[in-house]
Amino acid sequence: MSGLRNGRIASTAYKALSTQSPLVASVSRAGAVSQREPVAPENASPLAALSAGALCRSLFTNTVSSTPWLLSPAISFLSYLCQPRRPLLFDVERNRPFAWLMKQTVYKQFCGGETPAETKATMRRMRDMGFRGTIITLATETVFDYRKNLVHGLGVEAGAGEGAAMCPAIAAWRKRTLGAVELLDEGDQLAIKITGAGPLVTDALAAGEPLPAQMLDALDEISTRCKAQRARILIDAESQLYQFGILQVGLDLMRKYNRGGHAVIYSTYQAYLKSTPASVARDLAAALDEGFTLGLKLVRGAYLSTDKRSLIHDTKEDTDAAYDAIALGALRQDLLGFSSSSSSSGVEQQRTECKGTQRRPFPSVNLFLASHNRESVVAAHELHRQRSEQGLPTVPVGFAQLQGMSDALSFGLLRLGGAPEVYKCTTWGSLAECLGYLARRASENRDAASRTSDEFAALRAEARRRLGRLLRLQG
Protein backbone atom coordinates (compact mmCIF):
# COMPACT_ATOMS: atom_id res chain seq x y z
CA MET A 1 0.00 0.00 0.00
CA SER A 2 2.83 2.42 0.85
CA GLY A 3 4.15 2.11 -2.69
CA LEU A 4 0.89 3.30 -4.10
CA ARG A 5 0.67 6.07 -1.52
CA ASN A 6 4.16 7.34 -2.31
CA GLY A 7 3.80 8.12 -5.93
CA ARG A 8 3.79 4.84 -7.79
CA ILE A 9 0.22 5.34 -8.94
CA ALA A 10 0.51 6.15 -12.61
CA SER A 11 0.44 9.90 -13.12
CA THR A 12 -1.87 9.41 -16.07
CA ALA A 13 -4.53 8.09 -13.69
CA TYR A 14 -4.59 11.34 -11.76
CA LYS A 15 -4.51 13.34 -14.97
CA ALA A 16 -7.51 11.45 -16.28
CA LEU A 17 -9.50 12.42 -13.22
CA SER A 18 -9.16 16.09 -14.01
CA THR A 19 -8.76 16.53 -17.76
CA GLN A 20 -10.87 14.07 -19.68
CA SER A 21 -14.50 14.03 -20.60
CA PRO A 22 -17.33 11.59 -20.01
CA LEU A 23 -17.88 8.52 -22.11
CA VAL A 24 -21.07 6.66 -22.60
CA ALA A 25 -20.83 2.96 -21.87
CA SER A 26 -23.12 0.51 -23.56
CA VAL A 27 -22.99 -2.48 -21.26
CA SER A 28 -24.64 -5.80 -20.70
CA ARG A 29 -26.32 -6.63 -17.39
CA ALA A 30 -23.45 -9.01 -16.69
CA GLY A 31 -21.09 -6.02 -16.73
CA ALA A 32 -19.15 -6.59 -19.97
CA VAL A 33 -18.39 -3.33 -21.75
CA SER A 34 -19.34 -3.53 -25.39
CA GLN A 35 -18.76 0.05 -26.49
CA ARG A 36 -17.50 3.35 -25.06
CA GLU A 37 -17.82 6.47 -27.17
CA PRO A 38 -16.72 10.01 -26.26
CA VAL A 39 -19.54 12.53 -25.91
CA ALA A 40 -17.27 15.58 -25.55
CA PRO A 41 -13.75 16.59 -26.60
CA GLU A 42 -11.08 14.71 -24.67
CA ASN A 43 -9.65 17.92 -23.16
CA ALA A 44 -13.01 18.97 -21.69
CA SER A 45 -13.47 19.20 -17.96
CA PRO A 46 -14.99 16.10 -16.34
CA LEU A 47 -17.68 18.43 -14.94
CA ALA A 48 -18.78 19.38 -18.47
CA ALA A 49 -21.41 16.64 -18.15
CA LEU A 50 -23.27 18.54 -15.40
CA SER A 51 -26.36 20.48 -16.42
CA ALA A 52 -26.45 24.21 -15.67
CA GLY A 53 -28.90 23.61 -12.84
CA ALA A 54 -26.79 20.85 -11.29
CA LEU A 55 -23.68 23.02 -11.56
CA CYS A 56 -25.41 25.93 -9.81
CA ARG A 57 -26.67 23.68 -7.00
CA SER A 58 -23.23 22.16 -6.64
CA LEU A 59 -21.63 25.59 -6.40
CA PHE A 60 -24.15 26.60 -3.73
CA THR A 61 -23.76 23.49 -1.58
CA ASN A 62 -19.98 23.44 -1.96
CA THR A 63 -19.77 27.12 -1.03
CA VAL A 64 -21.47 26.22 2.23
CA SER A 65 -19.47 23.03 2.84
CA SER A 66 -16.15 24.78 2.12
CA THR A 67 -16.89 27.67 4.49
CA PRO A 68 -16.74 26.61 8.17
CA TRP A 69 -18.78 29.55 9.47
CA LEU A 70 -21.57 28.58 7.05
CA LEU A 71 -21.31 24.81 7.36
CA SER A 72 -21.70 24.50 11.14
CA PRO A 73 -25.00 26.44 11.23
CA ALA A 74 -26.20 24.49 8.17
CA ILE A 75 -25.57 21.16 9.92
CA SER A 76 -27.33 22.38 13.06
CA PHE A 77 -30.27 23.63 11.00
CA LEU A 78 -30.68 20.35 9.11
CA SER A 79 -30.41 18.40 12.36
CA TYR A 80 -33.07 20.63 13.87
CA LEU A 81 -35.40 19.94 10.93
CA CYS A 82 -35.15 16.21 11.75
CA GLN A 83 -36.60 16.70 15.21
CA PRO A 84 -40.30 16.02 15.89
CA ARG A 85 -42.85 18.73 16.75
CA ARG A 86 -41.19 21.53 14.81
CA PRO A 87 -42.98 24.90 14.54
CA LEU A 88 -44.95 25.52 11.37
CA LEU A 89 -42.29 27.82 9.92
CA PHE A 90 -39.76 24.96 9.74
CA ASP A 91 -42.06 22.01 9.12
CA VAL A 92 -41.54 20.73 5.56
CA GLU A 93 -44.77 18.73 5.74
CA ARG A 94 -46.95 21.76 6.57
CA ASN A 95 -45.10 24.81 5.24
CA ARG A 96 -45.24 24.40 1.46
CA PRO A 97 -43.15 27.45 0.48
CA PHE A 98 -40.38 26.33 2.83
CA ALA A 99 -40.61 22.77 1.51
CA TRP A 100 -40.35 24.06 -2.08
CA LEU A 101 -37.21 26.04 -1.24
CA MET A 102 -35.58 23.05 0.45
CA LYS A 103 -36.45 20.78 -2.45
CA GLN A 104 -35.02 23.12 -5.10
CA THR A 105 -31.70 23.39 -3.26
CA VAL A 106 -30.32 20.67 -1.01
CA TYR A 107 -32.89 17.98 -1.83
CA LYS A 108 -32.37 18.06 -5.60
CA GLN A 109 -28.62 18.17 -5.09
CA PHE A 110 -28.43 14.93 -3.08
CA CYS A 111 -31.71 13.04 -3.56
CA GLY A 112 -33.34 11.23 -6.46
CA GLY A 113 -37.02 12.10 -6.10
CA GLU A 114 -40.06 12.07 -3.90
CA THR A 115 -41.99 9.79 -6.23
CA PRO A 116 -41.08 6.80 -8.41
CA ALA A 117 -41.50 8.97 -11.51
CA GLU A 118 -39.10 11.64 -10.23
CA THR A 119 -36.60 8.97 -9.19
CA LYS A 120 -36.80 7.28 -12.59
CA ALA A 121 -36.05 10.59 -14.30
CA THR A 122 -32.97 11.05 -12.11
CA MET A 123 -31.79 7.54 -12.98
CA ARG A 124 -32.13 8.30 -16.69
CA ARG A 125 -30.03 11.46 -16.27
CA MET A 126 -27.31 9.45 -14.54
CA ARG A 127 -27.21 6.96 -17.39
CA ASP A 128 -27.13 9.76 -19.97
CA MET A 129 -24.04 11.15 -18.21
CA GLY A 130 -22.24 7.85 -18.79
CA PHE A 131 -22.59 5.97 -15.51
CA ARG A 132 -23.00 2.20 -15.49
CA GLY A 133 -26.19 2.70 -13.53
CA THR A 134 -27.74 4.17 -10.41
CA ILE A 135 -27.90 2.66 -6.94
CA ILE A 136 -31.19 3.70 -5.38
CA THR A 137 -32.18 3.43 -1.74
CA LEU A 138 -35.34 4.35 0.14
CA ALA A 139 -34.65 6.98 2.81
CA THR A 140 -36.72 5.42 5.60
CA GLU A 141 -34.55 4.19 8.46
CA THR A 142 -34.23 4.10 12.24
CA VAL A 143 -31.25 5.89 13.79
CA PHE A 144 -30.03 5.27 17.34
CA ASP A 145 -28.26 8.28 18.83
CA TYR A 146 -25.86 6.88 21.42
CA ARG A 147 -25.12 10.30 22.92
CA LYS A 148 -28.77 11.11 23.54
CA ASN A 149 -29.90 7.49 24.07
CA LEU A 150 -32.66 8.22 21.56
CA VAL A 151 -34.23 6.12 18.81
CA HIS A 152 -35.54 8.17 15.90
CA GLY A 153 -37.48 6.64 13.02
CA LEU A 154 -37.38 8.61 9.76
CA GLY A 155 -40.42 7.85 7.62
CA VAL A 156 -41.02 4.59 9.51
CA GLU A 157 -44.62 3.58 10.08
CA ALA A 158 -45.82 2.40 13.47
CA GLY A 159 -45.20 -1.26 14.23
CA ALA A 160 -47.70 -3.91 15.24
CA GLY A 161 -48.33 -4.87 18.84
CA GLU A 162 -47.50 -8.20 20.39
CA GLY A 163 -49.27 -11.11 18.76
CA ALA A 164 -50.33 -9.20 15.64
CA ALA A 165 -50.40 -11.35 12.53
CA MET A 166 -48.96 -8.68 10.24
CA CYS A 167 -46.82 -5.64 10.98
CA PRO A 168 -47.89 -2.52 9.01
CA ALA A 169 -44.34 -1.09 9.07
CA ILE A 170 -42.86 -4.22 7.48
CA ALA A 171 -45.70 -4.38 4.95
CA ALA A 172 -45.16 -0.73 3.97
CA TRP A 173 -41.38 -1.21 3.67
CA ARG A 174 -41.85 -4.31 1.54
CA LYS A 175 -44.31 -2.59 -0.79
CA ARG A 176 -42.13 0.48 -1.34
CA THR A 177 -38.96 -1.58 -1.77
CA LEU A 178 -40.58 -3.84 -4.34
CA GLY A 179 -41.76 -0.67 -6.07
CA ALA A 180 -38.13 0.44 -6.22
CA VAL A 181 -37.16 -2.87 -7.83
CA GLU A 182 -39.58 -2.00 -10.64
CA LEU A 183 -37.55 1.16 -11.32
CA LEU A 184 -34.34 -0.74 -12.03
CA ASP A 185 -33.10 -0.87 -15.60
CA GLU A 186 -30.06 -2.68 -16.92
CA GLY A 187 -27.06 -1.78 -14.75
CA ASP A 188 -29.06 -0.27 -11.88
CA GLN A 189 -28.76 -1.66 -8.36
CA LEU A 190 -30.81 -1.58 -5.17
CA ALA A 191 -29.57 -0.55 -1.73
CA ILE A 192 -31.75 -1.27 1.30
CA LYS A 193 -31.92 0.05 4.85
CA ILE A 194 -33.29 -2.80 6.95
CA THR A 195 -34.19 -0.58 9.90
CA GLY A 196 -36.71 1.20 7.70
CA ALA A 197 -39.04 -1.75 8.33
CA GLY A 198 -39.87 -0.55 11.82
CA PRO A 199 -39.75 -1.41 15.54
CA LEU A 200 -40.24 -5.18 15.33
CA VAL A 201 -37.23 -5.41 13.04
CA THR A 202 -35.01 -2.99 14.96
CA ASP A 203 -35.83 -4.66 18.28
CA ALA A 204 -34.75 -8.02 16.85
CA LEU A 205 -31.57 -6.54 15.39
CA ALA A 206 -30.63 -4.84 18.66
CA ALA A 207 -31.24 -8.03 20.65
CA GLY A 208 -29.37 -10.28 18.21
CA GLU A 209 -32.52 -12.29 17.60
CA PRO A 210 -33.93 -13.64 14.30
CA LEU A 211 -36.01 -11.22 12.26
CA PRO A 212 -39.80 -11.66 12.20
CA ALA A 213 -40.96 -14.22 9.64
CA GLN A 214 -42.80 -11.49 7.76
CA MET A 215 -39.54 -9.58 7.28
CA LEU A 216 -37.62 -12.69 6.23
CA ASP A 217 -40.29 -13.42 3.63
CA ALA A 218 -40.04 -9.84 2.36
CA LEU A 219 -36.24 -10.08 2.04
CA ASP A 220 -36.55 -13.38 0.17
CA GLU A 221 -39.08 -11.92 -2.24
CA ILE A 222 -36.95 -8.83 -2.90
CA SER A 223 -33.79 -10.90 -3.34
CA THR A 224 -35.48 -13.31 -5.73
CA ARG A 225 -36.83 -10.43 -7.84
CA CYS A 226 -33.44 -8.70 -8.00
CA LYS A 227 -31.65 -11.93 -8.89
CA ALA A 228 -34.12 -12.51 -11.72
CA GLN A 229 -33.38 -9.00 -13.02
CA ARG A 230 -29.63 -9.56 -12.56
CA ALA A 231 -29.48 -6.61 -10.18
CA ARG A 232 -27.46 -6.50 -6.97
CA ILE A 233 -28.72 -5.71 -3.47
CA LEU A 234 -26.39 -3.61 -1.32
CA ILE A 235 -27.44 -3.85 2.34
CA ASP A 236 -26.58 -0.50 3.89
CA ALA A 237 -24.61 -0.15 7.11
CA GLU A 238 -26.59 1.61 9.82
CA SER A 239 -26.40 2.61 13.50
CA GLN A 240 -24.15 0.38 15.57
CA LEU A 241 -26.99 -0.71 17.85
CA TYR A 242 -28.33 -2.60 14.83
CA GLN A 243 -25.24 -3.16 12.68
CA PHE A 244 -24.05 -6.53 13.98
CA GLY A 245 -27.55 -7.92 13.43
CA ILE A 246 -27.63 -6.41 9.94
CA LEU A 247 -24.33 -8.10 9.07
CA GLN A 248 -25.77 -11.43 10.19
CA VAL A 249 -28.84 -10.91 8.00
CA GLY A 250 -26.57 -10.14 5.05
CA LEU A 251 -24.48 -13.23 5.68
CA ASP A 252 -27.58 -15.46 5.77
CA LEU A 253 -28.82 -13.98 2.48
CA MET A 254 -25.40 -14.41 0.84
CA ARG A 255 -25.39 -18.08 1.80
CA LYS A 256 -28.61 -18.50 -0.16
CA TYR A 257 -28.24 -16.18 -3.16
CA ASN A 258 -24.48 -15.70 -3.79
CA ARG A 259 -23.78 -18.92 -5.64
CA GLY A 260 -21.99 -19.69 -8.88
CA GLY A 261 -19.18 -17.18 -8.34
CA HIS A 262 -21.47 -14.14 -8.50
CA ALA A 263 -22.71 -11.88 -5.67
CA VAL A 264 -26.34 -10.79 -5.66
CA ILE A 265 -26.19 -9.67 -2.01
CA TYR A 266 -23.53 -7.34 -0.61
CA SER A 267 -22.99 -6.40 3.03
CA THR A 268 -21.57 -2.99 3.85
CA TYR A 269 -18.48 -2.84 6.08
CA GLN A 270 -17.55 0.44 7.75
CA ALA A 271 -13.80 1.05 7.78
CA TYR A 272 -14.03 3.54 10.63
CA LEU A 273 -15.04 0.78 13.06
CA LYS A 274 -12.24 -0.93 14.95
CA SER A 275 -14.19 -4.20 14.73
CA THR A 276 -14.44 -4.25 10.92
CA PRO A 277 -11.34 -6.39 10.18
CA ALA A 278 -12.71 -9.08 12.49
CA SER A 279 -16.13 -8.87 10.80
CA VAL A 280 -14.59 -9.16 7.32
CA ALA A 281 -12.36 -12.07 8.41
CA ARG A 282 -15.36 -13.91 9.86
CA ASP A 283 -17.33 -13.53 6.64
CA LEU A 284 -14.35 -14.48 4.46
CA ALA A 285 -14.09 -17.70 6.46
CA ALA A 286 -17.81 -18.39 6.05
CA ALA A 287 -17.60 -17.82 2.27
CA LEU A 288 -14.63 -20.18 2.00
CA ASP A 289 -16.07 -22.92 4.22
CA GLU A 290 -19.57 -22.83 2.73
CA GLY A 291 -18.74 -22.16 -0.91
CA PHE A 292 -20.54 -18.89 -1.58
CA THR A 293 -19.32 -15.53 -2.92
CA LEU A 294 -18.81 -12.76 -0.38
CA GLY A 295 -20.30 -9.45 -1.52
CA LEU A 296 -18.01 -6.92 0.15
CA LYS A 297 -19.05 -3.28 -0.06
CA LEU A 298 -16.59 -1.01 1.74
CA VAL A 299 -17.34 2.49 3.06
CA ARG A 300 -15.65 4.71 5.60
CA GLY A 301 -18.77 5.25 7.71
CA ALA A 302 -21.53 7.85 8.05
CA TYR A 303 -22.75 7.74 11.66
CA LEU A 304 -19.84 9.45 13.41
CA SER A 305 -22.12 11.98 15.12
CA THR A 306 -24.48 9.39 16.64
CA ASP A 307 -22.47 6.17 17.17
CA LYS A 308 -20.42 5.34 20.25
CA ARG A 309 -17.10 7.10 19.71
CA SER A 310 -14.98 4.41 21.36
CA LEU A 311 -16.00 1.94 18.63
CA ILE A 312 -14.51 4.17 15.94
CA HIS A 313 -10.86 4.67 15.02
CA ASP A 314 -9.24 7.52 16.93
CA THR A 315 -8.10 9.47 13.85
CA LYS A 316 -9.09 9.92 10.23
CA GLU A 317 -5.65 8.62 9.24
CA ASP A 318 -6.38 5.37 11.06
CA THR A 319 -9.67 5.07 9.18
CA ASP A 320 -7.97 5.80 5.84
CA ALA A 321 -5.34 3.15 6.55
CA ALA A 322 -8.01 0.61 7.50
CA TYR A 323 -10.01 1.34 4.34
CA ASP A 324 -6.99 1.00 2.04
CA ALA A 325 -5.75 -2.15 3.77
CA ILE A 326 -9.06 -3.93 3.16
CA ALA A 327 -9.63 -2.57 -0.36
CA LEU A 328 -6.12 -3.24 -1.66
CA GLY A 329 -5.82 -6.52 0.23
CA ALA A 330 -9.01 -7.79 -1.40
CA LEU A 331 -7.77 -6.71 -4.84
CA ARG A 332 -4.51 -8.59 -4.23
CA GLN A 333 -6.44 -11.56 -2.86
CA ASP A 334 -4.24 -11.33 0.21
CA LEU A 335 -6.27 -10.19 3.19
CA LEU A 336 -6.60 -11.02 6.89
CA GLY A 337 -4.93 -14.41 6.66
CA PHE A 338 -6.59 -15.42 3.37
CA SER A 339 -4.48 -15.55 0.23
CA SER A 340 -4.55 -17.02 -3.25
CA SER A 341 -1.56 -19.22 -3.98
CA SER A 342 0.05 -16.65 -6.31
CA SER A 343 -0.76 -13.49 -4.32
CA SER A 344 1.99 -13.67 -1.71
CA SER A 345 5.69 -13.73 -2.50
CA GLY A 346 7.90 -16.53 -1.27
CA VAL A 347 9.38 -14.17 1.34
CA GLU A 348 5.91 -13.31 2.67
CA GLN A 349 4.98 -16.98 2.87
CA GLN A 350 8.18 -17.76 4.78
CA ARG A 351 7.45 -14.96 7.24
CA THR A 352 3.96 -16.30 7.78
CA GLU A 353 5.30 -19.79 8.42
CA CYS A 354 7.84 -18.41 10.90
CA LYS A 355 5.04 -16.77 12.84
CA GLY A 356 3.30 -20.10 13.08
CA THR A 357 0.15 -18.92 11.27
CA GLN A 358 -1.53 -20.80 8.45
CA ARG A 359 -2.83 -18.75 5.52
CA ARG A 360 -6.10 -20.04 4.14
CA PRO A 361 -7.15 -19.99 0.46
CA PHE A 362 -8.80 -16.77 -0.65
CA PRO A 363 -12.57 -17.27 -1.17
CA SER A 364 -14.74 -15.97 -3.99
CA VAL A 365 -15.24 -12.23 -3.41
CA ASN A 366 -16.97 -9.46 -5.36
CA LEU A 367 -15.82 -6.00 -4.21
CA PHE A 368 -17.67 -2.70 -4.25
CA LEU A 369 -15.81 0.45 -3.20
CA ALA A 370 -17.97 3.40 -2.19
CA SER A 371 -15.67 6.31 -1.47
CA HIS A 372 -15.16 10.02 -2.11
CA ASN A 373 -11.45 9.81 -1.29
CA ARG A 374 -9.59 10.40 -4.54
CA GLU A 375 -6.35 8.76 -3.42
CA SER A 376 -8.06 5.58 -2.20
CA VAL A 377 -10.18 5.25 -5.33
CA VAL A 378 -7.37 5.79 -7.82
CA ALA A 379 -5.02 3.49 -5.90
CA ALA A 380 -7.63 0.72 -5.97
CA HIS A 381 -8.43 1.20 -9.64
CA GLU A 382 -4.77 1.31 -10.65
CA LEU A 383 -3.96 -1.83 -8.67
CA HIS A 384 -6.89 -3.67 -10.25
CA ARG A 385 -5.83 -2.54 -13.72
CA GLN A 386 -2.22 -3.56 -13.20
CA ARG A 387 -3.07 -7.00 -11.85
CA SER A 388 -5.57 -7.63 -14.64
CA GLU A 389 -3.00 -6.68 -17.31
CA GLN A 390 -0.32 -8.84 -15.70
CA GLY A 391 -2.59 -11.86 -15.31
CA LEU A 392 -2.36 -11.76 -11.51
CA PRO A 393 -5.28 -12.85 -9.31
CA THR A 394 -7.75 -10.14 -8.34
CA VAL A 395 -11.49 -9.71 -7.76
CA PRO A 396 -14.30 -7.99 -9.70
CA VAL A 397 -14.70 -4.40 -8.45
CA GLY A 398 -17.17 -1.55 -8.84
CA PHE A 399 -16.95 2.08 -7.69
CA ALA A 400 -19.59 4.50 -6.47
CA GLN A 401 -20.04 8.03 -5.18
CA LEU A 402 -23.14 9.72 -3.84
CA GLN A 403 -25.31 11.95 -5.99
CA GLY A 404 -24.23 15.56 -5.62
CA MET A 405 -20.81 14.73 -4.20
CA SER A 406 -17.35 14.20 -5.77
CA ASP A 407 -18.61 14.61 -9.33
CA ALA A 408 -15.13 15.38 -10.66
CA LEU A 409 -13.93 12.07 -9.21
CA SER A 410 -16.93 10.15 -10.57
CA PHE A 411 -16.62 11.50 -14.11
CA GLY A 412 -12.85 11.16 -14.02
CA LEU A 413 -13.17 7.49 -13.09
CA LEU A 414 -15.13 6.92 -16.27
CA ARG A 415 -12.07 8.03 -18.22
CA LEU A 416 -9.57 5.62 -16.69
CA GLY A 417 -8.30 2.60 -18.58
CA GLY A 418 -9.97 -0.70 -17.87
CA ALA A 419 -13.54 0.60 -18.21
CA PRO A 420 -14.45 0.45 -14.50
CA GLU A 421 -18.03 0.03 -13.38
CA VAL A 422 -18.89 3.46 -11.95
CA TYR A 423 -22.20 4.23 -10.28
CA LYS A 424 -23.94 7.12 -8.60
CA CYS A 425 -25.91 6.41 -5.42
CA THR A 426 -29.11 8.31 -4.78
CA THR A 427 -31.59 8.27 -1.92
CA TRP A 428 -35.26 8.67 -2.68
CA GLY A 429 -38.32 9.42 -0.56
CA SER A 430 -40.26 12.44 0.63
CA LEU A 431 -38.41 15.56 1.73
CA ALA A 432 -39.33 14.84 5.36
CA GLU A 433 -38.01 11.26 5.08
CA CYS A 434 -34.71 12.45 3.57
CA LEU A 435 -33.88 15.10 6.18
CA GLY A 436 -31.77 12.74 8.30
CA TYR A 437 -29.84 11.64 5.21
CA LEU A 438 -29.24 15.28 4.22
CA ALA A 439 -27.97 16.11 7.70
CA ARG A 440 -25.47 13.23 7.51
CA ARG A 441 -24.25 14.40 4.11
CA ALA A 442 -23.61 17.87 5.52
CA SER A 443 -21.79 16.40 8.50
CA GLU A 444 -19.72 14.18 6.19
CA ASN A 445 -18.58 17.24 4.25
CA ARG A 446 -17.41 18.86 7.49
CA ASP A 447 -15.25 15.81 8.17
CA ALA A 448 -13.70 15.95 4.68
CA ALA A 449 -12.69 19.59 4.35
CA SER A 450 -9.77 18.97 1.97
CA ARG A 451 -11.90 16.93 -0.42
CA THR A 452 -14.72 19.49 -0.50
CA SER A 453 -12.30 22.37 -1.09
CA ASP A 454 -10.82 20.49 -4.08
CA GLU A 455 -14.31 19.83 -5.43
CA PHE A 456 -15.24 23.49 -4.96
CA ALA A 457 -12.15 24.59 -6.90
CA ALA A 458 -13.07 22.25 -9.76
CA LEU A 459 -16.64 23.56 -9.81
CA ARG A 460 -15.50 27.18 -9.91
CA ALA A 461 -13.12 26.37 -12.76
CA GLU A 462 -15.98 24.75 -14.69
CA ALA A 463 -18.24 27.76 -14.05
CA ARG A 464 -15.51 30.13 -15.30
CA ARG A 465 -15.00 27.94 -18.38
CA ARG A 466 -18.70 28.09 -19.26
CA LEU A 467 -18.92 31.81 -18.58
CA GLY A 468 -15.87 32.46 -20.75
CA ARG A 469 -17.32 30.38 -23.55
CA LEU A 470 -20.61 32.30 -23.34
CA LEU A 471 -18.82 35.65 -23.48
CA ARG A 472 -16.78 34.52 -26.49
CA LEU A 473 -19.92 33.43 -28.30
CA GLN A 474 -21.63 36.74 -27.60
CA GLY A 475 -18.51 38.63 -28.67
Automatic annotation (TrEMBL):
<dbReference type="InterPro" id="IPR002872">
    <property type="entry name" value="Proline_DH_dom"/>
</dbReference>
<keyword id="KW-0274">FAD</keyword>
<comment type="function">
    <text>Converts proline to delta-1-pyrroline-5-carboxylate.</text>
</comment>
<dbReference type="Pfam" id="PF01619">
    <property type="entry name" value="Pro_dh"/>
</dbReference>
<dbReference type="GO" id="GO:0071949">
    <property type="term" value="F:FAD binding"/>
</dbReference>
<dbReference type="InterPro" id="IPR015659">
    <property type="entry name" value="Proline_oxidase"/>
</dbReference>
<dbReference type="GO" id="GO:0005739">
    <property type="term" value="C:mitochondrion"/>
</dbReference>
<dbReference type="GO" id="GO:0010133">
    <property type="term" value="P:L-proline catabolic process to L-glutamate"/>
</dbReference>
<keyword id="KW-0285">Flavoprotein</keyword>
<dbReference type="InterPro" id="IPR029041">
    <property type="entry name" value="FAD-linked_oxidoreductase-like"/>
</dbReference>
<keyword id="KW-0642">Proline metabolism</keyword>
<comment type="similarity">
    <text>Belongs to the proline oxidase family.</text>
</comment>
<feature type="domain" description="Proline dehydrogenase">
    <location>
        <begin position="186"/>
        <end position="453"/>
    </location>
</feature>
<dbReference type="GO" id="GO:0004657">
    <property type="term" value="F:proline dehydrogenase activity"/>
</dbReference>
<protein>
    <recommendedName>
        <fullName>Proline dehydrogenase</fullName>
        <ecNumber>1.5.5.2</ecNumber>
    </recommendedName>
</protein>
<feature type="region of interest" description="Disordered">
    <location>
        <begin position="339"/>
        <end position="358"/>
    </location>
</feature>
<keyword id="KW-0560">Oxidoreductase</keyword>
